[in-house]
Automatic annotation (TrEMBL):
Region (Disordered): 1-29
Source taxonomy: Bacteria, Bacillati, Actinomycetota, Actinomycetes, Catenulisporales
Similarity field: Belongs to the binding-protein-dependent transport system permease family.
Domain of life of the organism encoding this protein: Bacteria
PANTHER family in the record: ABC TRANSPORTER PERMEASE PROTEIN, INNER MEMBRANE ABC TRANSPORTER PERMEASE PROTEIN YCJO
Keywords of this entry: Cell membrane, Membrane, Transmembrane, Transmembrane helix, Transport
UniProt keyword Repressor, yes or no: no
Topology relative to the membrane: Multi-pass membrane protein
Compartments in which it is found: Cell membrane
InterPro entries to which the protein is assigned, alphabetical: ABC_transporter_permease, MetI-like, MetI-like_sf
Span of domain ABC transmembrane type-1: 107-318
Name of the protein described by the UniProt record: Sugar ABC transporter permease
Length: 329
């Protein structure tokens, strides 16, 4: 280093004044940046403290049971407790169960019936959007009542409606000369009958989703299309359906998940002594039998894991396909 480079700047020189100015400016700016960083860290810390109860509840009541079920699916339980590692034996027993093909077909059929109810929900939501005034809220409440009704109460009412001897449905059919079947004790009709109840139960919830989607469609689109000569049918297929597709996608995902988990209606509407039960079981009902009737916890856990993986795969496929038919904006 040369003498010129090593010599300090004179006190009154321009270089010294510039360095002092930079130090003065950097001091408050550095302290301000430090305070901002500490404030930001404090905000993050308090944010995590506030959401910690949610994460703890999620981990304890959702994530941990999933991990437990996955582990139990590789074990065999004794009559008085205790587990023994058996590997993939439970999965092999489940896949070779003679009831599985019929239960799978019943589950798929029920899910397809629930999906077929989506167009009906769209039509009712469109009609409900045309109702204004003091009766609009009343109609919404009436359609939404099945969603908040207890499944046991729903099953009791529909068992009476479906009764083959004195049910209301068969009585109305007899007025036009039709002899109605035993809807819930004949295996040819049970899944279809349960599917109708599933559509009725989910109609109100789906209508709320579709009604909200319909209200978000700008009225200018309909007015502009009307000036071009488009009728109601053309407007429905060219404007309403494309702009309602995000809501349709959301409802279809929920409907598939609910359809593949169908259990409560089979249990409460058919009953264990029903002759049609053997041909009307679903995969979720097989889980119930192994978990609570035969106490085969390992096999029940394997069924739950398989059903969860199937649901995840179908949901992923739906999200993949939605890019082709769902229009945002």
């Amino acid at each position: 280093m040369s003498a010129i480079e090593s010599r300090p700047a004179a006190a009154g020189s321009p270089a010294a004044a510039g360095a002092a100015g930079r130090a003065e400016a950097a001091g408050p700016r550095g302290r301000r940046r430090g305070r901002l960083n500490r404030a930001r860290l404090s905000e993050w810390a308090w944010g995590y403290v506030m959401i910690a109860p949610l994460f703890v509840g999620l981990a304890l009541f959702y994530l941990w049971p999933i991990v437990q079920s996955a582990y139990f699916s590789f074990t065999e339980w004794g009559a008085f407790g205790g587990q023994e590692w058996v590997g993939f034996k439970n999965y092999s027993n489940f896949l070779s169960d003679p009831q599985l093909p019929r239960a799978t077909w019943n589950t798929v059929k029920y899910a397809l019936i629930i999906l077929a109810g989506i167009p009906l929900s769209i039509v009712f939501a469109a009609l409900l959007n045309q109702v204004h005034g003091k009766y609009a809220s009343l109609y919404r409440i009436l359609y939404f009542l099945p969603v908040v009704s207890m499944p046991a109460a729903v099953a009791m009412v529909w068992r009476w409606l479906y009764n083959g001897d004195y049910g209301l449905i068969n009585y109305l059919l007899s007025l036009v000369g039709i002899h109605g079947p035993h809807w819930v004790s004949d295996a040819r009709y049970t899944v279809w009958a349960l599917g109708v109840v599933g559509i009725w139960s989910s109609l109100g919830y789906n209508m709320i989703i579709f009604a909200a989607g319909l209200k978000n469609i700008p009225r200018q689109y309909y007015e502009a299309s009307a000036l071009d000569g488009a009728g109601r049918v053309r407007q429905f297929f060219s404007i309403t359906l494309p702009l309602l597709s995000p809501s349709i996608f959301f409802v279809s995902v929920l409907s598939v998940i609910a359809g593949l988990q169908m259990f409560d209606l089979v249990l409460m509407m058919l009953g264990k002594a029903n002759p049609a039960l053997a041909d009307s079981k679903t995969i979720a009902y097989l889980f119930y039998e192994d978990a609570f009737l035969t106490n085969n916890q390992g096999l029940a856990a394997a069924i739950a894991v398989v059903l969860t993986l199937v649901l995840l795969a179908l949901t992923a496929i739906q999200f993949r396909l939605q890019k082709r038919w769902v229009h945002y904006g």
